[in-house]
């Protein structure tokens, strides 16, 4: 009796796995523009991240070591410290990349304290 039950379970598992594979193949065929969309989202988010990592330190350095102490530049750097990761999160979630978007939301929340520190430099 147990062998019949085990064979029925193994047949069900095989059918389930085959059905899952068929559904996934259909899903990939259903949206052929998915790869291009994911690539575009990845490029935009990467460009924002690189720009953020380059622009903010330059602004902080210029604001602190400029000819005059420039509070406007430091305020812009503090704003960009928070806004650039948030913008990347919005773009990623709009492109249905929820894992990437949630990672950038966490990064945005982590950047609040450095932004406050940068804002106090003025």
Structure write-up:
The chain is mostly helical and 122 residues long. The protein has helices at residues 2-30, 34-65, 71-94, 98-110, 112-119. α3 (71-94) runs antiparallel to α4. It starts with a helix and ends with a helix.
Characterize the largest beta sheet: strand count, sense, and whether it forms a barrel.
Answer: none
Work out the number of β strands: 0
Q: Total number of helical segments?
A: 5
Low-confidence regions: none
Shape: elongated
Task: Report the end-to-end length measured between terminal Cα atoms.
Answer: 80 Å
Order of helices and strands: HHHHH
Work out the helicity level: over 70%
Task: Note the main attributes of this structure.
0% strand; 87% helix; 5 helices; mainly alpha
